[in-house]
C-alpha cells in the first residue's frame, strides 16, 4: 500500500465524486477508479457506496478514513519534529519578541560573539508569542508582559521603573520628582511598546484627567528627536532614558522620577517546558543577561542606580 493511493482515497472521500477528484489530482477518472478499486481489493473490504451519481463512504470506509487521517497527522508531526531537531542541531536560534527593535539592536553583537550560530528573529504580539512557542516555531520569546501558561517556562530577568523624560526648558524639568497629577497640561509622547496608552489613561484617571497624547511612536530615535525638540513628555523605563543620554551626551533632555505607584517595566524569557536545551540557547540567555548588567552600569553612570536597587539615592 503506497501513500499516493491513500491520498486519492482521502480526496474521493472528501469530494464524493470521482470526476471532480480526478480533475483536482490531475489524473484520469478511469485511472482514479482503478486505484480505488485496487485499494479495496488490497484491504479485502468495500469502502464506498454508489448513490445517484455520488460515491460515499460506507461504515468500513469511514472507519478506514479515520485511521488514514490519524496516520498522516502522525507522519506530519513526526516530520516537523525531525525538522525542528535538525534546526536545533544546526545551531540556528529562532527568537521572538513583543518589544519592537529589542532584539534587532542587540543581535548584531551576539552574532559577532557567536558567528557559528544562525539567527531567525521575529516580532509578535504577546498572544502570537505564546502560540509560536507552543507551535515550536520559535525557541525563545522575549516579552515585556508576563506569560502565564502551564506549558511555558517564563523567567523574569529584569524590571525597570518608569520615569518622566522632558526637555530641559519644560517648566517642571528641574523638579527631580513629579506625580502624574502635575502633568495635567502636558502633551505626552507615548511609546506604545513600552508604556501603552491604556497604562497612561489608567495612571491619569487617578487624578481625574484625560491625557493629551500628541505622538504615538515605536522608534527610540524618533522618541529622542521629539523630546529633544521639546514636543512633549514621555514615560519610559529608566534604562531607555539613560541609554538616550549615553548615546546623545549633548542632549537637552532631563529625567524626573515618578512618585506615583506605577508597575515597573519587565523583561522575561519564555520557552517550552519540555524543550531540549542547546549550547546555542545557553549562549543566547547568557548574552541577554550580560547585556542587562551593562545596562545597569549605564543607569548607575547617570546617578539613577538607586531606582534599581544598585546604590543609595543621590542627595
Automatic annotation (TrEMBL):
Keyword terms? DNA-binding, Transcription, Transcription regulation
- Return the Pfam families for the record: HTH_1, LysR_substrate
HTH lysR-type domain mapped to chain residues: 1-58
Can you supply one Gene Ontology CC term for this chain's record? protein-DNA complex
Database matches in InterPro entries: LysR_HTH_N, LysR_subst-bd, WH-like_DNA-bd_sf, WH_DNA-bd_sf
Name the CDD domains on file: PBP2_LTTR_substrate
Q: Give the top-rank taxon of the lineage listed in the UniProt record for this protein.
A: Bacteria
UniProt GO molecular function: DNA binding; DNA-binding transcription factor activity
The record's PANTHER family line, in alphabetical order, gives:
HTH-TYPE TRANSCRIPTIONAL REGULATOR CYNR, TRANSCRIPTIONAL DUAL REGULATOR HCAR-RELATED
Q: Which family does it belong to?
A: Belongs to the LysR transcriptional regulatory family.
Q: Protein name, please?
A: LysR family transcriptional regulator
Q: Which organism is it from?
A: Coprococcus catus
Q: What is the lineage of its organism?
A: Bacteria, Bacillati, Bacillota, Clostridia, Lachnospirales
